[in-house]
Task: structure prediction
Amino acid sequence: MYEEKQSGMTFIVKTITNLMIGFMLVFGAYVVLYGHITPGGGFPGGVMIALAYILVTLAYGRKVVESMVSGVTGSIADDVGALVILILGFIGLIIGGTFLFNFLPKGTPFSLFSAGYIIIYNLAIMLKVGMSLYIVFLALAILQRVVTTREENKGDKK
Amino acid sequence: MDVIFLLHLLLTFMIIGAFITVEIKNMLSAVISIGAVGFALSMTFLFLGAPDIAITQVIVEILSLILLIRATVNVDNVAIEEKGESVFHNRTALIFVGIILVFAWIAFKSLPPFGEPLMRVSNYYLSNGLTLVGATNFVTSVILDFRAYDTFGEAMVLFVSISGAFAILRRWKREQHKDFLRIDREH
Amino acid sequence: MTLYFLNFVLLIIGLYALVVKRHIVKKILGVAIMEYAVNLFLILLGFRKSGIAPILTEDMDLRTFIHTAVDPLPQALVLTSIVIGLGTLALMVAMAIRLYERYGTFDMDEIKRLRG
Amino acid sequence: MSYLLPLFTAIPIFSAILILIIGKFDKKNFPRIWSLLTSLSLLFILAVIWDKGTMIHEMGGWKPPFGVVLVKDNLSQFMLLIVNVVAFLTIIYSYVYMIKFEDYLRFFTLFLFMLAGMNGVVLTGDLFNLFVFLEIASIASYALVGYGVDAEELEASFKYLILGALASVFILFGIGMIYSVTGSVNMADVARFIIVNNLSKNNALLMATGLFIVGFGLKAGLVPFHAWLPDAHSSAPAPISVMLSGVLIKVLGIYALIRVFYSVIGITPVVSNVFITMGVISMLVGAFMGFGQDDMKRMFAFSSISQMGYIAVGIGIGTPLAIIGALFHLLNHAGFKSLLFFSSGVIQNSTGTRNLSELGGLREKMPVTSAASVIGSLSIAGVPPFNGFWSKLIIILAAFSAGYFWLGGILVLTAFLTLSYYLRFQKNVIFGEPASIIKNVREAPFMMILPMVVLAVFCLLAGIFNSWIINNIIIPAQSIITNQLVYISSVLGM
Result:
């Protein structure tokens, strides 16, 4: 039988994770929010946020990260992100007559709230991408442990 | 240094890295050398004036390395001995590849020369994007406004592949492992 | 021109791994190499000699920007294609690990219950 | 009324996400009832826009070469009809069939994504957008083929996934070549640029042609590229076999080939000859391999390859008559091959096997299934008055009138081969001595019978009223294929 290792990785890794996690989340959010002005956008920002959680998973083990964002929350956030994108499309269809019409005012260039609905679209993509990659990593990590453990058990029986 | 020369250098490095990836016995080394190829690729993107793609490539590279190492190499790192293939087999493959390369060379000659794209449609994006969309990152204005439907499709591709991965990984009663998977607890 | 050609060689190496190698992970890496090659090809197509990134900064003149910026459309296409590649990779890894659980090996020659 | 077009992709995707969210609370009934309603609503929208002429929907309000456009012309409407009707019948069938898989929440999610992807491929007027939706449909189908997560299913699914990824890379490379030469990815704009600058002899476009033939040929399962098809079709759950064989290989393979070559790049004699050669090899290989199979579903899979060969030959000949034959055969094949895969699922469900040698004498225990299966076999074998006879006849006539006499001979020969192996199937399964394993077999539940009856009636009616179908559905679609300029001018508005 496999028992969850509480310990995770070494002290050094944990300390560095503690230092890094905040930076990663903030930088991910920055990349998303300023995606229409500087390089970046919803997708890289979302993967960065997923990577922050994956780092915690690798350093501390699954229990700690699931107390931060559980699998169920992650999957609901994933669905909500996808729904927001669709709803943006439908609002465009109602207001502008075409699907995914950019219905918000364009604003002045170089300011945060410019370029219409792009910022909302980016945030929705971030939610979708970040959470879905995080939960798929959790699922793969669990399955991998089970497979290895069963291999070891098989070896013991021999 | 000349950008074109640098690009040649990076591409050669990538080819060598890819070749090592394909031929090396140890799977961990193979995965790590494909990581090297990926990072070289992101540098290439940077030199080609595509910082957006470079950022995305670096991030995606890290994630795919973690996924590959964690989920496959960690499980079983045994190299598989290739069966000794006959010289004839390899020679026909080489001739075939050679023919393809020659045809590709001829075909690439009739593309517009390197560094001078046509930009029939893109000129419209560059000259009108600022007034019509308001985003100063033109790649963003293309993916999220001019071609927003593609991005919608792209998000849905990710959604469907994650859903598919969960469907493949789900618990299934036909097997009787009591201590098995708690995967669909997540979903 | 030679860059296109070198890029095509990269694609052929990926194809070789996909077709010839027996290890499932090697096949997955082959697909990944091919995706790299095709992404790089699209970006190479949009490159302009002494071009700059298609991102306007406040101190730039719009007119010179239009005449020097590289093509943004292939970059948009590549961004989509990278995401698609990541999705395919996640599915492939999930399937590889499930196959390993069923057969106990990553060798494609031993995974041969169907006749093809 | 063009605002209805994006709903063909948006509604199934919306339903899929909703099923995932609400399915957390109601796993049992909500997914299947909601998918049934979704599919029904798509059929309703299709009825509203049917025969309203060409419709253009400019996504986000951007004019064609700059933004993505959706185009509904007569060809798209013909394909939409096939896709949505077969999907609707398959959902009715899965309503009961999927119970044995116990967790079918994700099945319906992925199914609706596959439906959305195919609708997107059919409706789009943009090459790269076609690629994106093709990926949605194929990724959903990879996961659905492996849905049973047993050893064989995973193996088939992995093979399909690897070859599918290869096809996607080739298609994207081809799109890159086209973009570089023409500076656009909009289909109509690319076509106009190629005609205006007389680029049809350009080497780069020739290479793109080759890449597209390999890529879409892999998706269509034509013979040099058919390695994944028999495994995937025989290992998938029955409703997915129906979708793969009935619509997926047609939409992602044949429709995409028609669109790219007839509407965009323009067809050249070389390409026609490649189509004819691939078609002939597919017909013969599929027919001969079909003989040797003991597994019912593998036999149907090889027969699919063979019938796809007919369609490829029809497209390759390229005269209006041949295209009519090919499109009519495409419609008919969606009908009878779905029917046969439905019946194979019913038989496997009730008897527990699908080997021809272990079955026999099902006609007394399962009368409706047997009758439907006989009708399907007679239709695919080309027995008059069923629909398969007429479409094969048109393709053969077109081959003779275009001067391909040897081709006509091969087409007739393949028709006889098909007839003989379907007779063998009938003799071993439906007629003959009752086998021991079918003692306690009963007729399948109503929800599984209904789609088969509908399709059997369709096979009979399409055979009897063939001229009505050809005049009202096929010829409008054919006129789009053979008139490239009409397509270009209707999209670009000139």
Q: What stands out?
A: Residues 2-103 of chain C form a domain with the Helix Hairpins fold (CATH 1.10.287).
